[in-house]
Amino acid sequence: MATERTFSIIKPDATRRNLTGAITAKLEEAGLRVVASKRIQMSREQAEGFYGVHRERPFFNDLVTFMISGPVVVQVLEGENAVLRNREVMGATNPANADAGTIRKDFAESIEANSVHGSDSLENAKIEIDFFFKPEEIVG
Ligand code: RTP
Ligand code: MG
């Protein structure tokens, strides 16, 4: 197994409900280490750029509006198989389908307001980390 880095966002529904610590604890319990973290307010342009792959999806505009509706916490997570491990602890996109004990099962409000984002591949993790962090902001 390889040590990987993945990218995570604690979404506005979660920061609004003061769940940053509870979610970070679940990530840490899953064996992931927070090696970079910052709380930011995304601009519309930034959110549209980040979610550019979803531009043609019917939920794109709603998603962007949601993601700029409040602060988010962007994080770089490091650990063995970090990309897959993070996807496992996040749970299914729709919390109604998420397994017990996952972040989305415990905290998400809906398929859109689903508390966390996590990179879906190592390749996208690198792109997403570079989108939000300078190398010197990441301390492993
Ligand atoms: P994420 O990218 O946030 O980690 O989530 P994901 O891979 O599980 O889901 P994805 O298909 O990439 O969708 C990105 C985000 O868009 C919102 N969404 N809304 N209204 C809808 O049907 C719908 N479907 C997806 C969610 O916030 C999802 O996380
Ligand atoms: Mg995704």
From TrEMBL:
Keywords: ATP-binding, Cytoplasm, Kinase, Magnesium, Metal-binding, Nucleotide metabolism, Nucleotide-binding, Phosphoprotein, Transferase. The keyword Kinase applies. Transmembrane segments: none annotated. InterPro entries: NDK-like_dom, NDK-like_dom_sf, Nucleoside_diP_kinase, Nucleoside_diP_kinase_AS. Its main location: cytoplasm. GO terms for molecular function: ATP binding; metal ion binding; nucleoside diphosphate kinase activity. Residues 3-140 form the Nucleoside diphosphate kinase-like domain. GO terms for cellular component: cytoplasm. One of its GO terms (biological process) is CTP biosynthetic process. ATP binds at K11, F59, R87, T93, R104, N114. It catalyses: a 2'-deoxyribonucleoside 5'-diphosphate + ATP = a 2'-deoxyribonucleoside 5'-triphosphate + ADP; a ribonucleoside 5'-diphosphate + ATP = a ribonucleoside 5'-triphosphate + ADP. Its cofactor is Mg(2+). The active site is at H117 (pros-phosphohistidine intermediate). It is found in: Cytoplasm. Gene3D superfamilies: Nucleoside diphosphate kinase-like domain. It comes from the Bacteria. Its EC number is 2.7.4.6. Pfam families: NDK. Major role in the synthesis of nucleoside triphosphates other than ATP. The ATP gamma phosphate is transferred to the NDP beta phosphate via a ping-pong mechanism, using a phosphorylated active-site intermediate. Belongs to the NDK family. Homotetramer. HAMAP family: NDP_kinase. This is Nucleoside diphosphate kinase. It comes from Allosphingosinicella deserti. The gene is ndk.
